[in-house]
Structure formats: structure tokens, C-alpha cells
Design brief:
Rossmann fold; 434 Repressor (Amino-terminal Domain); 723 residues
Length: 723
């Protein structure tokens, strides 16, 4: 019996008792779907409370109950091993996904998970509804993780975090970016998104929808109507209220009165063991009574329990209970007058902060400005100006479970506040009367970050540039909102918006970029010519990529005038380069060639290799379709200039050179040059390994043409984003 799966054993005991799944569910106070899922799953083992309900409903003998408990424990161990490793058992096929992995155990939602399995198989929109901190996000991710090993969603299981979004308009943008969908000139992004995923079979989880619930409802309804293979799960404090929505209310974890066990107590004890293994590996007697009291007083809210456990490193459980007595006087009154449960969570955080030093509380409230994971340097600069003070305060906040440590894409360390905790911190900062002071420091810091990134663009590969700026994209948005959206400092906001040109271009957020650049030009009273030039160039970028070619040309001409006034000759070359592209697209080839030639001369005179590379690329573009030797010479020089600037990929010039060879009918050379384009990371992974890539084994003319034409089409797409 040792290796029997829990589901098989449960089915055997149920049949022996002469019970249907429905009757057993009624006796055990579970749903029929929960029983069905528990019996079908080969790897799932329920927690103790569910197991006890089943054993009592089946009237199991002691030895039968022991068998069922052993099978359940084995299932839980298998599940824990899967969660920490890959999310799926060894050897199982898995759907592509971006689900985060947790290093802590999951408690008390076995019946909910079983119901979720049933709903995901039968419904297309499930909404998890509940209070802040009740565990909606964790439940959604655990439910999604069970789908990874199924074959139902071959196109992926994708988790979309919406908590950091400042405006509803960003909902579609965020989903599209996660799914790799870029804006197309002249086409609404929602139409592009629908067209791209209409035939896909994927599972979409939208987390924390409450502050953008109306837009989420519109987006989800559109996707479900036009994309029949999509299933959506949302977490929110307010239902979407659209057709087909199945609302699942997520309750706090149950608290068992007899001190034996229960989901809330299991969670608290598990986190206490994490805090101090030696003290809490065997919680019994008075400590167990105190732990149960904590669970009851905190209503089994998981986040509140985790915060309480975070205090156990330096307090006894009796001291924690005493702290609750002192700080939760409103809780009893609140329960009688039906105050929202999030007030309980606020009280819990209040009490947790009261145990911090004054400087630590100050740093905590200022950290609320960060919408996403932030660096130690950013925390020190914004929150204190003293690295040592910020470091010590962060260490204290991490120890108290108020700040989480996360690893960034390059293996470095960042910090992050939970969404609920961040909202609380922002409230405290506003109450302190110092919100604007630290918001200005925040905006100043990220303006400097954007300027630094802007100056480094072209001196590194595109992938390296994105790695530099994408982790802070939401921080740039917060700074723009405070400076321009809330009209606190239009001049600082204009500097930031002007520095966001390359960032918004490379992340394909053109419409968003237009909004901030136009706002800056409209709201800022007096600006330096260099700032005006950057804003006009940013607008030209964005208009060019959304099909507004004449507006793009006008903005580039205005930028040239501002840069000349500022004496910024390299920037003049840059704006002339942009004018050449716009004129080409407008069909004014002779004008484009004249302006492009001027851009080359100015950049060459300034000895700016990056601007020269761009100017040469634009000049070559004016010869498209003519087979002129000037085009090939300019592109060869442009590739060398890009690489001399630090951009080893030289992707734009390489793309155009491949296209030029295709147009000239030299498909062998097009193919040879094109492999440098398509074999980049994220393109054709096997390109560098193929023996066809060597110059001594190129395909025949007909085969080269067949292979080169797709490269030429890819080149045209790459050039459409070239500036």
C-alpha cells in the first residue's frame, strides 16, 4: 500500500462504502468537483483538514485512515518537489509559461484547487474575488501550475501583473507585451492582439484587476469573443460583471478551535519554523494555544499570518498575542459593525511597523514610491541619501517580511514590496506630509537613469539596452505621472519625457510615448532648446512608427532647429537622419537623399560613429530598389560604424544589406549576410550550428533564393523600425 496513489485509494474506499462522488462530497462538506479531481490526480495529496473530513465521511478504520494519510503525505511531497524544481514532474511535457515559483509551502486550499481544476476545464472566465491579503494571487498561481503538465494549453500559461499599472489604457499594452505582440502602424493594438492570438490555445491569468476593472472587463470580453481557445482567470476585489464570468470567492483560511490543526494554524506554524527552526519545530502546549489565538485574531488572513510570523524572530508568541491585544482594539468593534477586512490587515501592518526603529519606518513609507522591484542604489538615493542607512533599514524590513528579495534577469539583487503593503506605505508617506519631497527625489533619480540609458543607446546591443531599461519601466511611468500627469514639475517631466525616446521606441510603446511628449511640450513653460529637440525627436520616432509620417517629418524638422540653437551638432545629424527616413516614406526620394547626405557629412565632421552609422543607413535607404553601388558602400560602412560604437549586432544595417542583395538578385550573398540577422538570440536557435552557414557550402541559386526571400521580408520589417 505504500506506493498507492491517493486518488486510487480514495476511490477504492468510496466504492467499498457504496457511495457516489456526490454523496461523499455531501457528507464531507466538499464539492463533487473536489472529489472528482482528488480521485483523478495521481500526484495530489490533500492537507490534514480535508483528509479528516474524508476519513470521517467514509467511516474509515484506524488502519485504513493511516493508509490514506500515508498516500496523502506522499502526494504532498511529490507536489512540493515539483513546485521548487520545474513545476512539473520529471519527464513530463509542460506548457510554456512565466509562472513564478514559490519557496514557501501552500496550505489549506485543496478543495479550492480541485474546484479550480473543474472550472478551468469547463469555463472560459473565472474570477477569484476576495479581500486584500487573502491569497487570491497564490491560489491563482497554484491552480495554473497544475495546468502546466496538461496538454490543454500548448501555446502557454501566462501570468500578467496589473497591480503596477497607473492607467487603464496600459492593460492591453501589458498583455500584448507579455505575449510578444507589437503595435502595427495604423492599427489599434487590440486588433493586432486579437489577430495574433485568435487561433491560440492559452491560459491567461490577470492579477490585481480592481483598480482597472472596467478596462479589464472590456479587454477580457473582447478576447473571449474573438479567441475561442483562450481561458482567462482574474484576481480582483471587484467582479468584472461580464457575460460568462464565474465568480469564486476566496475566503480566509479556516481556524480550527480545538488546537489540533487546520489550514490557518498549519500556515502560521510553517512560517514560524521558517523564522526560527529550533524554537518552532515542535509547537505544543502554551505556544500552540498562542498560535491558535493569533490565527483567530487575524481571521486566518494569510498575509497577516505571514507578517505575524515575521515578528517571531525577536518576539515570543505571547508577546505577539499581547501586541495584537494592544493594536487590535478596533477589530472587535469592527466585526460588530462590519468594517472591511482590509482594516484588519492595515492594523496588522500598523502594529508590525510600531516594532521598527523610527528611521526604518521612514524608509518603509518612502519605499511605497517604487511600483516594481528596485535596486539597493535606488532605495538609498530616493529614501535616505545614505547607503548605509538604507541598507540597514532594508535588512530590518526584509526580516519583518515587509520587503521581499528578488533576483533580476542578470542575477543581481532587487527588492520589492507586496502590492498591499506598498499601498499601505504610500498612505503613510502621504500622511507624513513628505510625499512630494520624496516623489521629487524619485523622479529626479529616474530622470537621471533615463538620460543615462538614452546616452548609452547604440553603444550596446538592443538586447542589452532592453535589459537595462525594462526592469524600471514602471518607475519611469510613476515619475512621469507625478511630474506631468499631476503637474508637479513640468520642466523635470519634460527632461524625462525627452530622455524616454529610445526607451519607448525599443519597447514599442509609441502611443504612450506620444502622450507624455505632447504633454511636456504643452505644460512646460520654458524649456532649453536641447530639451525641446529631444521631445520633438521622440515625437518623430513615435509618429513614424504609428503611420503619421508628415507629423513625424514636421517634428524632426523642429528638432533640427532646436538642436542648431543649442549648438548640438551630433544631434543635428540625428534629426537630419530622421528627416531622410520620413521623406523616403513620403516618396520624396531626391529630398531624402539630399538630407541624408547632409546628415552623413555632419556626423562625419563631428566624429560621432553612432550618429554616422545611422546617417549612412538612412542615406543607403534612399537608394532602395535601384541596385546602386552607393547603397552597398554606405551599408558596409554603416555596419562597421555600428560595431565601432558598441552595437555588435548592427541589426538595422545588416537587415538592409540583406534586402539590397535580395533586390539585386544575389541571393547567395543575401543568405550569407542574412544569417547574421536571423541567427541572433531569440531568432533561429540552430542557425550557427548548421553546416550551410559556411561560405564553402552555400545552397544552389534556387535554394538560396527560397531561403533568402524570407530574410528579405524580415529585413523590411526590421527597417520599418529603423531611425
Amino acid at each position: 500500500m505504500k506506493d498507492r496513489a491517493f486518488g486510487d485509494l480514495l476511490r477504492e474506499f468510496r466504492c467499498a462504502a457504496g457511495l457516489s462522488q456526490e454523496l461523499l462530497a455531501e457528507r464531507a462538506r466538499l464539492s463533487p468537483g473536489a472529489i472528482s479531481t482528488l480521485e483523478r490526480s495521481a500526484r495530489r495529496g490533500p492537507q490534514q483538514q480535508t483528509l479528516s473530513l474524508l476519513a470521517e465521511a467514509l467511516h474509515l478504520a484506524p488502519e485504513q485512515r493511516a493508509q490514506l494519510e500515508e498516500a496523502a503525505a506522499l502526494g504532498r511531497r511529490r507536489r512540493a518537489g515539483r513546485s521548487v524544481a520545474d513545476g512539473v514532474p520529471s519527464g513530463a511535457s509542460s506548457a510554456p509559461n512565466n509562472l513564478p515559483h514559490f519557496l514557501t509551502s501552500f496550505h489549506g486550499r485543496e478543495a479550492d484547487l480541485a474546484d479550480m481544476d473543474t472550472l478551468i476545464a469547463s469555463r472560459r472566465l473565472i474570477t477569484l474575488l476576495g479581500y486584500a491579503g487573502v491569497g487570491k494571487t497564490r491560489l491563482s498561481l497554484e491552480a495554473a501550475r497544475y495546468q502546466v503538465e496538461s496538454a490543454r494549453f500548448p501555446d502557454g500559461i501566462w501570468f500578467v501583473e496589473l497591480a503596477v499599472l497607473g492607467t487603464p489604457e496600459l492593460v492591453t499594452t501589458t498583455i500584448a507585451r507579455l505575449l510578444g505582440v507589437r503595435e502595427r502602424p495604423g492599427e489599434p493594438l487590440m486588433d493586432t492582439l486579437v489577430a495574433t492570438i485568435a487561433s491560440k490555445k492559452l491560459f491567461l491569468i490577470l492579477d490585481n484587476c480592481e483598480h482597472v476593472v472596467a478596462e479589464c472587463a472590456r479587454v477580457v470580453e473582447t478576447l473571449l469573443r474573438h479567441c475561442p481557445g483562450i481561458v482567462t482567470l482574474t484576481t480582483t476585489r471587484e467582479a468584472l460583471r461580464i457575460d460568462g464570468e464565474c465568480v469564486v470567492r476566496v475566503r480566509p483560511l479556516p481556524v480550527v478551535e480545538d488546537l489540533t490543526s487546520g489550514p490557518a494554524l498549519d500556515l502560521l506554524i510553517d512560517r514560524l519554523i521558517d523564522a526560527d527552526f529550533a524554537r518552532f519545530s515542535n509547537v505544543s502546549g502554551e505556544d500552540r494555544a498562542h498560535a491558535t489565538t493569533i490565527c483567530k485574531r487575524l481571521d486566518g488572513v494569510p498575509l497577516a499570518l505571514e507578517l505575524a510570523a515575521g515578528r517571531a524572530g525577536d518576539l515570543s508568541l505571547s508577546q505577539i498575542v499581547a501586541g495584537l491585544d494592544e493594536r487590535f482594539m478596533l477589530l472587535a468593534d469592527g466585526r460588530r459593525t462590519a468594517l472591511p477586512r482590509q482594516h484588519t490587515l492595515g492594523g496588522m501592518i500598523d502594529w508590525s511597523l510600531a516594532l521598527l526603529a523610527e528611521r526604518e519606518r521612514e524608509v518603509f513609507s518612502r519605499l511605497g514610491l517604487f511600483a516594481e522591484a528596485f535596486t539597493p542604489e535606488a532605495a538609498a538615493t530616493v529614501c535616505s541619501g545614505e547607503p548605509g542607512v538604507a541598507r540597514d533599514a532594508l535588512a530590518a524590513l526584509i526580516a519583518k517580511s515587509l520587503v521581499a528579495v528578488v533576483e533580476d534577469r542578470d542575477g543581481g539583487v532587487r527588492y520589492r514590496l507586496l502590492e498591499t503593503v506598498r499601498a499601505y506605505a504610500i498612505d503613510r508617506l502621504r500622511e507624513s506630509g513628505t510625499y512630494d519631497r520624496y516623489a521629487r527625489r524619485f523622479a529626479t533619480y529616474y530622470c537621471a537613469r533615463a538620460k543615462d540609458a538614452d546616452a548609452r543607446y547604440g553603444r550596446m546591443s538592443n538586447s542589452a539596452f532592453l535589459s537595462l531599461v525594462e526592469p524600471d519601466l514602471d518607475h519611469f511611468r510613476v515619475a512621469l505621472q507625478w511630474t506631468l500627469g499631476e503637474r508637479n514639475d513640468a520642466i523635470l517631466g519634460a527632461e524625462l519625457a525627452g530622455a524616454m525616446g529610445w526607451i519607448y521606441r525599443q519597447t514599442a510603446l509609441f502611443v504612450e510615448g506620444v502622450g507624455w511628449a505632447e504633454t511636456a511640450l504643452r505644460e512646460a513653460p520654458v524649456l532649453e532648446p536641447l530639451v525641446i529637440g529631444r521631445l520633438q525627436m521622440a515625437l518623430s520616432f513615435f509618429y513614424f512608427n504609428v503611420g503619421g509620417l508628415q507629423r513625424a517629418l514636421d517634428a524632426a524638422v523642429a528638432a533640427s532647429a532646436s538642436y542648431r540653437d543649442a549648438g548640438a551638432r551630433s544631434e543635428v545629424a540625428w534629426s537630419l537622419t530622421q528627416q531622410a527616413y520620413c521623406l523616403c516614406r513620403l516618396g520624396r526620394i531626391e529630398d531624402a537623399r539630399r538630407v541624408g547626405g547632409e546628415a552623413v557629412r555632419v556626423a562625419r565632421a563631428e566624429r560621432d560613429t553612432f550618429r554616422l552609422a545611422g546617417a549612412l543607413n538612412a542615406y543607403a535607404f534612399t537608394f532602395a530598389g535601384e541596385g546602386a553601388p552607393e547603397r552597398f558602400a554606405a551599408l558596409e560602412e554603416a555596419i562597421g560604424a555600428y560595431r565601432a560604437s558598441g552595437d555588435e549586432d548592427a541589426i538595422v544595417a545588416t537587415a538592409q544589406l540583406a534586402e539590397a542583395y535580395c533586390e539585386a538578385g544575389d541571393f547567395g550573398k543575401a543568405l550569407s549576410v542574412g544569417w547574421n540577422l536571423v541567427a541572433r538570440p531569440g531568432r533561429i536557435a540552430t542557425a550557427r550550428r548548421s553546416p550551410r552557414r559556411s561560405s564553402t557550402s552555400l545552397p544552389t541559386h534556387s535554394r538560396a533564393k527560397t531561403s533568402a526571400l524570407p530574410i528579405g521580408r524580415h529585413a523590411k520589417r526590421s527597417i520599418s523600425y529603423a531611425i
